[in-house]
Structures are given as structure tokens and as C-alpha cells.
Amino acid sequence: MHLVLEVQAEKAVENATERLREEVKRLLDKDKIEVAQLTREGATGIVLKVAKAADRDNAQRALGDLVVLDKVPGTTPDELRLTLQAREIKRIEDLAQRQSLETIRNRVDQFGVTEPHIVPEGDRRIVVQLPGIKDPQRAINLIGKTALLELKAVDDSLNPGDVAQGKASLPADLQLLNLREVDDNRQVTGKRPIVVRRQPVITGANLTSAEVRPDDQGGWLVAFSLDSEGARVFGDFTGANVGKQLAIVLDDTVFSAPVIRSKIGEGRGQIEGNFTADTARDLAIVLRAGALPAPVQIISNLTVGPSLGQDSVQKGVRAAILAAILVVALMAFYYKLSGVIADFALILNSIMLVGILVALRATLTLPGIAGIALGIGMAVDSNVLILERIREELRLGKTVRSAIDAGYDKAFVTIVDSHVTTLITAAALFLFGTGPIKGFAVTLSLGVAINLFSALVGTRVVYDWMTARRDLKALSI
Amino acid sequence: MEILGKTKVDFIGKRYVAYAISTVLVLVGIVALIQISRGSANMGIDFAGGTSIQVKFDRPVDLGAVRQALSQSGIKDSEPQQFADGRSVMIRLKRTTSEAGMARQVEDALRGGIRDNSFIVEASTEVGPAIGKELQNKALLAVAISLAGIVVYIAWRFEFRFGVAATVATFHDVLAVLGIIFVLNKEITLLIVTALLTIAGYSLTDTVVVYDRIRENLRARRKEGLGDTMNASINQVLSRTAMTSITTLLGAAALFFLGGEVLHDFAFALVLGIVIGTYSSWFVASPLIYEWRIRSEAARRSRR
After folding, report:
1. Owning domain of residue A70
2. Which residues of chain A lie closer than 8 angstroms to B197, CB-CB?
3. In a designed cystine with A383, which of A85, A133, A233, A342 is the match (CB 3.0 to 4.6 A)?
4. Same domain for A297 and A312?
5. One domain for residues A298 and A310
6. Cβ separation of A315 and B260 shorter than 8 Å?
């Protein structure tokens, strides 16, 4: 399957701004500056209003270390507008693509796909090629999941049902999520609203391992352990909140919200969701490989099942073999012995081309095959050009030896011209074309380059050998 | 053995007939190009964006049942198509609003609607509209730049007029094939674009071979008129062009008849391209230069 993913880098920028907002709050608290309003505006802006207008300059000074933010006084004397610098935005976006690529590569490696091909395309895209995938949907889930694991405190001061229906308003530091409900057959049956604190206690960044374990109901769960810092924070939190609920949140869905019975000091936890063995295994993989820095969107997905792939390849190969036999036979019939020599050059040509493509580990797409076909067509043409030219020279009454020499010399210019123009086309297509068109350009230029060699040098050697051995009176052409 | 002996066809003399034919072909091609850019041509989902899913049932299936199963699940504007074996069905959905997961929805709809005949998914394609548009633009840019490169190279190796004429001839072929594909209402997919690129490469080679001989003869036979030299040159390479065209046609015909459904339209476009490409290297590429030279010489004389 062939996937094109687009990294929603603006989401990573938004997250960075949100983190900066928290940092701003921390710095202002440290300097005891009272804040009337501190909100994020769009993906890159923060609006700060201090309680006392006189504090604005102090606030600006306190935030002096945050060099990635441009700080501009607002329209009112108590307002300060903070904006993420363009250079920083670019850096975050680039990082988001690089990290996404690394993470996806990690996940695919752990999933165990033979010969995956994962490369960046442009600034924001990632192309993922996975040959021989049996369950494409599973692969898409594995690759496309953001997999942000967060442990969040459940807030029971509000009735989640009221919040969901809009009867109660939600303070900015709280968040309404859905708790997934699963029946005994491991089917998701519904969801229940739940209110949690927005600020997570721990995130997946503190995870050191995640593994699959059987649960009590005959299903599977994913057990994880935290690093020392995570274990300390987790221990402190659970110690201080015995009897309260802790929500285990994956990509904004609450999987479970167990009651904390005692302090958990060793930094272990588990995600229960009555999983199947496969989904539990995939979840463990994405947790180990880490979260994507930003969500990815699948913008193109080409999947060819093994049966169709085989079927169309078989048909294509059968057609190609027949075409090759017809051409080889026609050449031998029309140009006799010289045609046979040309046929040898063609076969040599094809073997070299296939060899190089195998060495480059190129995955052949249909446009790629078309490129090969055109390349071989040009190889036939080169030989035809040479042989026709030799015939012409013979007709002028030249001896075999000089007809061959003149034929090659005169055809040489034509062959070079036609091949160079084709190479120019291929180069432009390679530089400016996308995916499949690039494949066409690569196989075509390889074909043309090899052909220049085999037509001009390969067959020439045979004629040189023939004319050197004995004095050839007539050429079979 | 020879297919064509010594020939003496007056290609230059018949140029007005060729101009008429070519004008029609190119006009149709331009109409096709306009329709494509307006989005009203039969664009494949590679370019228009959308979803296509190909499934193979265990037993032959009734297309009506497939349609019903889809509409029951609220999937509108689907175009189910049945393959010759009666078991394979291709369902295409163009420009769907939710491009991700649409193939899955179709699959679920079929599983729910047709319970007595199970199937496997042979291929599925989902393309977002943005990427389709981008693919289209990039393909056009690539073609434009490669054509500019060719003008420069041929202008350097031959002369400026040859470069322009070769490009015009190449454009002519691509437009003509595109126009015919459009008129026949065949779907314009990435494979068709690949075929067009292949045709451009093929036609260019053909043209360069003829030009090469013209250049050679222009040096050798300075006394003869331009028209005679051009005619002689085209005739001299006629047997080569015939031989190359036949071998290439053999290949394309094999693909057409044996290559399966996927390659059918591709091979068809190639066959068209070979025929038109051969025609244009005789009747378009060289007469254009002839026309241009004669006219500019006449202009120079009248200025004196």
C-alpha cells in the first residue's frame, strides 16, 4: 500500500504556543505579577492582561527570557500581545515533520513489515509504502494514530452530564472527554462524558516500556512503566489523591478511569479496554514508539490487494514477454544475422536495466514499467537506425567494413541527439514531477543511458570481431 | 528483406492537407485541455480526488444488488462497474467530502447489503482533492519545463526554428491523443498522463531522427531546394521510421490485448500516439520549418 500523509504542523505550533502560555504564567507567578487574563489567540498568539496597568512593563521584563515570543503592547495600557516568531514557527513545523517521520518509521519497524519505504515529501508530507500488507485498515490505524497518552485527574465538582448538555459551564482548566464503554465481546458499546483537569499529570513522554498482558475477562490490556521522573510525579500524585479517579486518556478518549486505592510508587500502570490481542499489541507499539508531535491526515491511500497485484502483474508480464518475442523475431527476420546481433544487444540491455533497478531496490509502479518499455523501444530504434544506415552505405557500394564504420558513425549523431532530448525530458520530469511520474523518469533515463552504451559499443564489438577474423565479402543484413 | 524500397513521397507538397487534419486534431485537444482545467472532463480520481475500491466476490454478483447495498447505506453517486468475469466490481466515488475512510464505508455497506456472497478487497484508492490538484499542476509544470529544455537543446544542436518546430510537433501529438481520449470519454488517469509522456518521448525521437537527416543533407546538397532536400531526407529515413513504428506497435498491441483491464486504456493511448507521432514527424515537424524558412526568406527579399 502507498500512503501519503500530511502532518498537521499547525497543531504542533498550537501545542507549542499553549506550552509557552503555561511558561508565561509560571514566570509571572514567580515575579508575583497579578494576571487578569492570559489566553491563547489563534495558533501563534497569546493575549496577556495584567491586573494593574503599572505592571505591564514588569511583565515584559519578566518574560525577557522567552526570546521566541515577540512582545508588543496592546491597545489598552494593561494589555501585552505575545506572538510566536516566524522563525520559531518554521522550526517547529520542520521538527514536526522530522519527528513524525521517525515515529512512524519506529512503529512500522516494530510492526514488522518487510521492506517498508518511508520518506518525506516536500515540507509537510510523508510517503509510506508498505508492500504486502494483509490488513490495510490495521496498518492505517497504526500509522495514523497520534497516540498521545495522558494521565489526567478526574474532576468530580461538576456533573459531566450537565456539562455535555450545556447546562453547566466549564472553567478553562477543565475539559470534557468521553469515556469509552466496552462490552464483554470487546465491542465498543458507547461513551459516557467525563470531566477531567486539562493539565495532565503525566504524558506518554515519560513512558519507558509498554507491553501486552492478559486481563481478567479473557481480553488483553497494555501495561506500561514510567521513567524515574514520571514515577516520582505519579507517586506524589497518587499519594495525595487516594480515593479519587484518574483518567487514562489516549488521543482525547478516556479508556478507563480507575479509583486510586493507594500511592503507586513504582511507576507502573495499565490501560484496560478489553482489547483483542491485535489491538493491544498495536497499542503497545504506538506507545513505545511515542506520540506523533502533531496529528497526521491521510490524504492519499492506494492499496492493491495481493491477488489483483499478482493478476495484473502476471498479465503485464505475459504481454511484455509476447511483445519481446515478437520484436526479437521481427528483427531477426528483417535484418537476418545483423538482426540477431541487435537482439543480443537488446537482451543485454534489458538484463543490465533489471540489474540496476534491483540494485537500487526500486519498487516498480505502472508508470515505471512504461518508462522501461519506452527505454527498450528506444533501444530497438537505435539498432534499427544503425542497421538501416549500414544498408544505405552498402547500397552506395561500400565494402562491408567501411559500410559498418560509416553506418555507426552517421547513426551515432542521431542516436545521441534523440537520447539527449529524451534525457532532458526525463530530468525535468524527475525534478518537477511527483511520485509516480518520478518513477517514469527514473526508469526512462536509466534505460536511455544503458542503451547509449549497448547500442554504440555492445554491437560494435561483435562487428569488429566479425570483420577482423576474416575478410567479409557480404554482410547478412 | 525490405518493407519499403526507395520511396519518393512528396511530403512537403501535401502539407496543406496535413495542416487541415492537424488543425482539427489540435483544436479538439485544446477543447479537451480547457475542459480539464475547468474540471468538467472525465478525470480519474488520481486528479479529481475521491475513492475507488475494487472487490472480487466468490460467485458472480448482480450489479443491481451492489447498487442497492450502497444506496441503502447512504452512499450516493457511486458508479459500480462490473468486470468481464462477473465477480469483480469496481466502485468509484468522486470528490467525496470525507476522503479518509470512504473505502471502508463502501466495504461495510457491501458486507451488510450482500450477505450470501462474500468478497475480498482487491484494491482501494483514496485521494484527497488537494493532492489531486497538486499532482495536476506539477505534471503540467514538469511538461512545460521539459519542453523548454528541448527547445534549447535542439536550437543549440540544429537551429532555433528546428527547436520550436520539434516542440510544436510534440505538443501536437500530445494534444491530439488527449483530444481523442476526451472525445471517447475515456477516464483521464495518471496512467493516461504517463502514456502521453511516453508519446511525447517517442514523437520527439522520431522528429529528431528526421531533423538529423535534414541537417546532414542540407550540408551535402547545398544546390537543391529546401523542399526537395526535406522530401529526400524524410524518404531516406522512411524505412527506419516504418520499422520502429511496427516494433513499437507490436509492443503496444500486446499490452492492449493481453495486458488486462488496468493497461487497456494506457495501451490504447500508446497505439494512438505511435500513429499520430509517426504522422507528425513526416507531415508536421518538417513542413513547419519549410514554411517558416520560405516565408522569412520571402520577407527578407521583399524588404530589399
Report:
1. 11-88
2. 370, 425, 429, 437, 440
3. A342
4. no
5. no
6. yes
Give one DSSP letter per residue of A325-371, joined into a string. HHHHHHHHHHHHHHHHHHHHHHHHHHHHHHHHHHHTTPPP-HHHHHH
Structural domain contains residue A437: yes
CA nearest A425 in B: which residue?
A: B146
A296 & A311 share domain: no
Residue A364, C-alpha cell as written in the block = 516498480
A41 confidence band (pLDDT: 50, 70, 90): confident
- The CATH number given to whatever domain includes residue A184 is 3.30.1360.200
Domain boundary (A278, A302, A326) is at: A302
Tell me whether 0.85 is exceeded by the ipTM. no
* A58-102 pLDDT tens trace: 888 888 888 888 888 888 888 888 898 999 899 988 888 888 888
> What averages of pLDDT result for each successive group of 10 residues across chain B (304 residues)?
73 89 94 84 78 85 84 78 80 65 80 83 77 74 81 87 90 93 88 81 86 90 84 89 85 80 82 91 90 88 80
CATH code of A24's domain: 3.30.1360
Which member of B122, B212, B251 has the closest CB to residue A307?
A: B122
- Are A136 and B124 in contact by the 8 Å Cβ rule? The answer is yes
Same domain? A387 vs A434: yes
The answer to whether B1 contacts A333, with C-beta atoms less than 8 Å apart, is yes
Q: Is B44 helix (H, G, I), strand (E, B) or coil?
A: coil
pLDDT tier for residue A109 given thresholds of 50, 70 and 90: confident
- Summary mean pLDDT of chain A: 83
CATH architecture of B15-43+131-303: Up-down Bundle (1.20)
What is the DSSP code string of B48-107?
H-EEEEEEEESS---HHHHHHHHHHTT--S---EE-TTSSEEEEEEES-S--TTHHHHHH
Give the one of A331, A367, A413 whose C-beta lies nearest to B190's C-beta: A367
Please indicate, yes or no, whether residues A346 and A278 belong to a single structural domain of this protein.
no
Tell me how far apart the alpha carbons of residues B183 and B179 are, in angstroms, rounded to a whole number.
6
Mutation target to probe the A interface, by most A beta carbons within 10 A, among B90, B120, B122, B246 is B122
Which residues of chain A neighbour B209 with C-beta distances below 8 Å?
A: 381, 385, 414, 418
- Is position A25 within any domain? yes
B50-127 fold: Alpha-Beta Plaits (3.30.70)
**CA A337 to CA A289: how far, in whole Å?**
62
B237 and A388: CB-CB below 8 Å?
yes
Look at chain A and report how many structural domains it folds into: 3
Same domain for A283 and A327?
no
C-beta atoms of B240 and A384 within 8 A:
yes
Tell me the residues of chain B between 255 and 284 that have a Cβ less than 8 Å away from chain A.
Answer: 255, 257-263, 266
Whether A296 and A310 map to the same domain: the answer is no
Q: Which pLDDT score, from 0 to 100, does residue A185 have?
A: 66
- Distance from the Cα of A425 to chain B's closest Cα (Å) equals 5
Looking at A268, A302, A336, the residue that finishes a domain is A302
pTM tops 0.80, yes or no: no
Give the model confidence (pLDDT) of A360-377 as tens digits.
766 666 677 777 877 888
- Tell whether B220 lies on the interface with A, counting CB pairs under 8 A: no
Q: Are residues A269 and A343 in the same domain?
A: no
Q: For residue B257, list chain A residues with Cβ-Cβ distance below 8 A.
A: 319
Q: Are B131 and A299 in contact (CB under 8 A)?
A: yes
3-state DSSP assignment of residue A377: helix
Mutation target among A346, A374, A419 for the B interface, most CBs of B within 10 A? A374
Q: List the single best residue of B102, B234, B258, B264 to mutate versus A (max A Cβ within 10 A).
A: B258
**Could you tell me which of A126, A124, A147, A129 has the C-alpha nearest to residue A139?**
A129
Locate the chain B residue with the closest alpha carbon to A435.
B135
Q: Domain spans of chain B?
A: 15-43+131-303, 50-127
CB-CB neighbors (< 8 A) of A421 in chain B: 150, 153-154, 166, 204-205, 208
